[in-house]
Design a protein that fits this description.
Blueprint lengths: L1 E4 L13 E2 L5 E3 L7 H10 L3 E4 L15 H21 L4 H20 L16 H20 L3 H12 L10 H4 L7 H7 L2 H10 L6 H9 L20 H16 L10 H10 L7 H10 L8 E4 L3 E7 L9 E7 L2 E9 L10 E4 L2
Antiparallel strand pairs: 1-4, 2-3, 5-6, 5-9, 6-7, 7-8
Length: 356
């Protein structure tokens, strides 16, 4: 399968993965041939791209650390959680128990697939951003924690904190959260209240571990200081918060928002690497980079020698050197063949851009 940006979707393409509507139900099944009215609906929903079948890639599968179905179920659970908090101005014991079960299921699936890399092309839609974001940050945080060698108890508390890290946004006006332009100073000061608001909500419930609700409070702190709300730095920021900080920024960058187009995974990774040691803990960035593919499987790329192809495999210790199925040379279609950029004879060849 191949990932196709929204602007490049054409009538007649065949879906390789389902498309979901705003309620989380399947709108179009895998195998459906796209018509113009289907493409219009995908556009209306705010998708930034889809996976389509490609006869050149029949042997290539995008393996997911967490199934799309489980991500959708957990996203709906987060919607219910926000609504529950909005009604009661607190998080109920019933809701905490439901969230804990969701974390257990997520953790089990991630651990089962812990040897996979995250091939995450963001397909979420604008209106559900906060809920999808919470789930993605959890997946990214836990897989990074696994790479760091955390035990299951720590992974559970990390996952719980990551899933609930943005609950304080329930108290932020929607017109500020979803503003289509740049926030002014007053609006940004309102946004900056959500870590403290989340901390207050979660701290009320004795069923949530302290280290989990501290993720809500400190996920916007920066490793060298100057973050918010407390300006903590270094190891004064709990490990879970340092992990969630990297995951939070990465997922925010790759997400399409009403006010800007999302970064590609490689662009987002460059931003994270650029902040290593200042905004982010360098060791955590190293482990994050091992598990998250800058060029996810199915991504069309251009190489430094003018060849063009599609990423078909990634490697944990060589994330910038994927295996690629070459489909064009100097702009002309060719009979596809594979190259592995880990090969020493290809040292001078690099990926220079993506076509998504």
């Amino acid at each position: 399968m191949r990932f196709v940006n929204l602007n490049n979707i054409e009538e007649g393409m065949v879906l390789a993965k389902p498309v979901y509507n705003e309620k989380g139900s399947i709108l179009l099944q895998a195998g459906v041939k796209l018509k113009n009215n289907y493409i219009s609906k995908i556009n209306e929903l705010g998708y930034n791209g889809i996976y389509v079948q490609d006869e050149r890639l029949e042997d290539v599968e995008v393996k997911e650390i967490v199934s799309e179905e489980l991500k959708r179920e957990t996203t709906n659970e987060m919607k219910d959680t926000f609504q529950d908090i909005n009604r009661q101005m607190k998080i109920s014991n019933k809701k905490v128990n439901e969230i804990k079960k969701s974390v257990d299921v997520l953790l089990a699936e991630i651990i089962e697939n812990k040897n996979l890399m995250v091939n995450m092309m963001d397909l979420k839609i604008f209106d559900d951003y906060t809920f999808h974001h919470s789930v993605n940050v959890t997946i990214l945080s836990v897989i990074t924690g696994i790479s760091l060698g955390l035990n299951n108890s720590d992974l559970y508390k990390l996952g719980l904190g990551a899933l609930l890290h943005d609950v304080g946004k329930v108290n932020i006006p929607k017109e500020v959260l979803n503003k289509s332009g740049k926030l002014d100073d007053k609006e940004f000061s309102v946004i900056k209240q959500h870590p403290v608001e989340g901390y207050k909500i979660l701290k009320q419930n004795d069923e949530i571990p302290t280290t989990s609700y501290m993720v809500a409070l400190h996920h916007h702190e920066k490793f060298a200081g100057e973050g918010y709300p407390e300006g903590k730095n270094g190891s004064d920021i709990h490990l879970y918060s340092r992990i969630a900080s990297v995951a939070d920024v990465y997922d925010a960058l790759v997400s399409d928002r009403p006010y800007r187009k999302g970064f590609t995974p490689s662009e987002a990774m460059e931003f994270i690497l650029g902040g290593s040691g200042t905004n982010f803990d360098r060791d955590i960035v190293t482990h994050f980079f091992k598990k998250v593919a800058p060029y996810p499987v199915g991504t069309e790329v251009i190489l430094s020698d003018n060849r063009q192809g599609i990423v078909i495999e990634n490697y944990e210790m060589h994330t910038l050197r994927p295996k690629i199925r070459i489909t064009k040379e100097n702009g002309a279609d060719i009979s596809p063949y594979d190259i592995d950029l880990r090969n020493n004879t290809l040292n001078s060849v690099t990926v220079i851009s993506t076509l998504s």
